[in-house]
Design brief:
- With 189 residues, the chain is an all-beta fold.
- It has strands at residues 7-12, 18-25, 28-29, 31-36, 42-49, 52-60, 66-73, 76-84, 90-98, 103-109, 115-122, 125-133, 139-146, 149-150, 152-157, 163-170, 173-179.
- The chain has 2 domains: 1-77; 85-189, Outer Surface Protein A, domain 3, CATH 3.90.930.
- It has a 17-stranded antiparallel beta sheet that branches.
- β2 and β3 (28-29) form a beta hairpin.
């Protein structure tokens, strides 16, 4: 009969350095598992329930700062995948909106924490609404993508909110282009 592990188990590299710390109950991995870099710091923590990844998976840099975090259910990532700047501020957030259609929303942030841009993604390509923001929260650019190409009207704005450019695209090709000054008057070119 096979022996079922119970309790904390440590696995070492051939050179004797700690590689993994895992917890077992009745032969199944349960609880928090830790993975260590060859230099000795924790690079990943993973929660397990009955041998399957369930819960938050966190990845760290050599200084112990959180780089990435996401939730797994039955070993498969779900919900939001978050990446962080070394300061600890959120860098990006990828939210799985419709797994069957490959849809997700990607949000990226300035290092100081303000929303920088957001775009819908389908099967790894920009598809749908795209918005970019100034640090003050005002819209800088807005438009639509279809299959990773600009499609439809793209508008850019001055930080004051005044329209700066208006470009119409069709399958990535520029059809019309208008430019405005900061008072909203068309610029003659």
């Amino acid at each position: 009969e096979k022996v079922k592990l119970n309790g904390k188990v440590k696995e070492y590299r051939p050179n004797g350095q700690l590689h993994y710390e895992r917890e077992y109950m009745d032969g199944e991995e349960n609880g928090l598992a830790k993975e260590y870099a060859p230099e000795g710091y924790i690079i990943r923590t993973t929660e397990f329930v009955d041998g399957v990844q369930e819960g938050i998976i966190r990845e760290y840099d050599e200084g112990g700062r959180l780089l990435r975090a996401f939730e797994a259910s039955n070993g498969i990532p779900k919900g939001a995948i978050k990446e962080y700047y070394l300061t600890g501020n959120l860098k990006s957030e990828s939210i799985i909106a419709d797994k069957q259609r490959g849809m997700e929303k990607l949000k990226e942030y300035y290092q100081t924490g303000e929303l920088w841009r957001e775009v819908n993604v389908k099967n790894g390509q920009r598809h749908g609404l795209f918005r970019e923001f100034y640090k003050n929260g005002a819209v800088k650019t807005i438009g639509d993508y279809r299959d990773n190409e600009r499609d439809g009207t793209f508008k850019t704005y001055f930080s004051s909110g005044q329209l700066k450019t208006e470009v119409v695209y069709e399958k990535g090709a520029k059809i019309t282009f208008k430019t405005y000054d900061e008072q909203g008057f068309p610029v003659i070119e």
